[in-house]
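Incident log, structure service

09:12 report received: a user says their structure output differs between two submissions of the same chain.
09:20 pulled the input from the user's history:
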Amino acid sequence: MFERGKTYHRRTDLHARFGGNGQSGIAPCVEHPYVFLFTAPVGEEYGYQDGWLSTTQFSCTGEGQAGDMEMARGNRAIQRHAAAGRELHLFEKTDRGGHYRHLGQFRYVSHQLRRGSDVDGDERSQIVFTLELVEPDVPA
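09:34 re-ran on a clean worker, output below:
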């Protein structure tokens, strides 16, 4: 359905067609079997540290800007995507105009809790997911 390496406009190409919260970094679609994940360098301002661990694994910080993160809402959607019959699709912001490059379809591998800062600079517990590319041979 989605082409790895292709750029999509978040609002018109993704949310208008498939649904999902247009403001959240984790956007489960109610009427389609997708969970959209969005990453951007600006996330570091809010305590998120996303990035590649290897050529096939990606580290993704869970949702929630203030206080301890919980395994609820979007975080639970990531952890339980396979059991719910949903695909995880990761997109990386490319510009200020709402365009995101599709990094690929991923699967949940594991998660860990780590200490970090929230948007207010307060220490908190963060959920950090390890995700793995489903089709690593497909060029980005």
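09:41 both user submissions now match this output. Likely a transient worker issue. Closing.
09:42 reviewer note: The CA atoms of residues 82 and 133 lie 14 Å apart. The longest strand covers residues 99-117.
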